[in-house]
Amino acid sequence: MMRPLIVLSCLLSVSLAWNSNYFPDNFKFGAATAAQQIEGAWNEDGKTETIWDRFIHQNPDRVGDHSTPDIVADSYHKYKEDIALAKAIGLNHYRMSIAWTRILPTGYADKINQAGVAYYKKLFAEMKANGIEPMVTLHHWDLPQSLEDTYGGWLNETVTDLFADYARVCFELFKDDVKIWLTINEPKNLCHSGYGTGGGAPGVRGSGVNEYICARNIVLGHAKAYHIYDQEFRAQNNGRVSIVIDTDWYEPNTNSGEDVEAAERVLQFNFGLYGNPVYKGNWPEVIINRVGNRSSLEGLETSRLPAFTDEEIQFIRGTYDFMAVNYYSSNMVEAKPDADIGDPNFDSDISATTYRESSWPTCNGTHIVDTPWGLRSFLNWLKTTYGDIEIVITENGISDKTGVLEDDH
């Protein structure tokens, strides 16, 4: 069945219209942003501290130019200009996130910040007036710092209930404004960088252990939010809900069985760890087996990968109305011998070598290479792995060096 495809890219800072001659009439263009990245006003009008506020204020060297979330694009005050830009370049969708601490300053649902509600109401009204539909993410990595301090954040299952409470508040407050909801954005980055390597907020290190605990709680929290919408709001509001999962594409270096298996393994640890429980049920078998075997060799009585109960598997499976995915870059993959048994490590659980070809065009940054062919390969893999599920590309694009649209890209 043919369905409309939505592609979301970065919001351009210039007023250039898309050339619609290259796309079918039902193709939908949008831009993707996040509250922490664009709103600013980090402590204004009742908003409280997030884990990224704390992380960057205490670790300014983690950002190359020492910029902070304090002002950024100042969209809290300039949202009308942002929506005008979106309209000027011909967008019909705008993906954004709600800041948990702007709506619930304590992190709990017992105190709603009306100033925060008013801001988002005005933003949604501005979109509607300009013919732009919002796609709203509930959690884009900006957990209330108070919940990190009290519970240890996404390493504590209690936070899944608090997230569900927050989701219910947003579903009720904005039921007349939003029809497309995204629960959590890119849990891989949140769990791996935030709680595994410590390279991102909240800066907790526990590679090979914390990623799996975080992943379990993330998909459980997502499922709780989904069921709340399904049971309490869908009949009246007729909206749609999903979770945004990202990965690079991983291309086998050769057609050898070892390289093909290694590439599939990397995809499962990056995408399947979060997608499999939602789209198929339970963890991917390769992750269950590898982490379980390595845990046993490490002398542990149970796997570092926390098991789901049968009830949890059923509760999480099928909690989507469409598949939301982010893609930016590709990598080559070579097989390598399993890492020696030692301290737990997420990369050792995967045991594969990844690299990028020097011939691939680079972009205005270090983390993206211009490999559009990887997107097609990724979409084909999704169809092969999960079947005929409607796919929405919720982020994609490159940081261009030229500043013009008519170039080799």
From TrEMBL:
InterPro entries with a match to the protein in the record: GH, Glyco_hydro_1, Glyco_hydro_1_AS
Domain of life according to the entry: Eukaryota
Active site: 395
Transmembrane segments annotated in the record for this chain: none
Keywords (A to Z) from UniProt: Glycosidase, Hydrolase, Signal
Signal peptide: 1-17
EC number(s) recorded for this UniProt protein: 3.2.1.21
Gene3D superfamilies named in the record: Glycosidases (3.20.20.80)
GO molecular function terms attached to this record: beta-glucosidase activity
GO biological process: carbohydrate metabolic process
Classification via Pfam families: Glyco_hydro_1 (PF00232)
Family affiliation: Belongs to the glycosyl hydrolase 1 family.
PANTHER family the UniProt entry points to: GLYCOSYL HYDROLASE, LP05116P
Protein name per the record: beta-glucosidase
